[in-house]
Amino acid sequence: MRAGPGLVDPGGDLDDCRSPQPTTSLMTVATFAAMATTIDWSAGTWPHVAHRRAGGRRRYNKLRQDQAAIRRMEVVMLLREFGGWNWGVQKRIAKELGVSEATISRDLRRLWLGP
């Protein structure tokens, strides 16, 4: 008889030469799952952890802002290339850049109205 993970071969005669897998009781798995889903929101965070998270957010947000600025420059260039503001130009620009039409609308609004 072959013993799989979490199963014990009572006879000790495993078909293969692997060492027997450790057993895992369902109580342990259920307890671990309950502990993993319980969050203590009032627990404090170490300052170095909070600083690292904030640094990661700043870095990610800066990257997205830079990508948006580059995309807006591309929108202006494509707007010129497509002959100015005509019917369907936003859709063509969105397809060219691989973004949604709503993104192009927001970019154009930002370009015309400013930050």
Q: Which key terms come to mind for this protein?
A:
4 helices; 2 domains; mainly alpha
Mean pLDDT: 78
- How many strand segments? 0
Tally of DSSP helical segments: 4
Low-confidence stretches: none
Helix amount, in percent? Answer: 55-70%
Share in β-strands: under 5%
Oligomer, anyone? single chain
Overall form: elongated
Distance between the termini: 70 Å
Total tally of structural domains: 2
User: What summary fits the major beta sheet?
Assistant: none
**Rg calculated over all Cα atoms:** 29 Å
Order of helices and strands: HHHH
Description of the structure:
The protein has 115 residues and is mostly helical. The chain is 60% helix and 0% strand. The N and C termini lie far apart (70 Å). Helix 2 packs across helix 3, helix 2 packs across helix 4 and helix 3 (89-97) packs across helix 4. The mean pLDDT is 78.
